[in-house]
Amino acid sequence: MPSQFAETLSEIKTFVQTCTDSFLAKVDRASYISLVDCLKSEDPEAIRIAINQLVKEKRLLAVAPLYLVAKGHVVPWVRQQAEKGLDSLVPRAEIDELVKGKDLKEAVFLLIQHYGHYQK
Questions:
Q1: How much is the pLDDT for 1?
Q2: How far apart are CA 76 and CA 69, in angstroms?
């Protein structure tokens, strides 16, 4: 797995861990972090299950990690699954407009801030 992909997933996790303090936020954060960790799996089927869970929960915070997987995962089938998941959450044109002109890492953090309403 390319190091930038894994490094950016780790940075997403760290960012979310440091952003909110309420009890409910901590529970949500733990669930979200578990799913993001699963996206690092070597098993494409485990990743598909994590993607499906993120989409099923309809949480817009899933947009950023799904975008990263769709653009940066080494397995084409996994990228396709992430693309389908993204299409279920938000219009593609909206994402494209937000990330226009950004590199992958900048785009991911912009999506976290936009869809997760997180500010540092």
A1: 52
A2: 10
Per-residue pLDDT reduced to its tens digit, 55-94: 998 888 889 999 999 999 999 999 999 999 999 999 999 9
Contact between residue 65 and residue 9 where contact means Cβ atoms under 8 Å apart:
yes
Q: Is the pLDDT of residue 109 over 80?
A: yes
CA distance 17 to 113: 14
Structure tokens, 64 = 């950023």
Q: Are 72 and 5 in contact (CB under 8 A)?
A: yes
How many residues would you count in the chain? 120
43: DSSP letter = -
What sign results for the dihedral spanned by CA atoms 34, 17, 56, 42?
A: negative
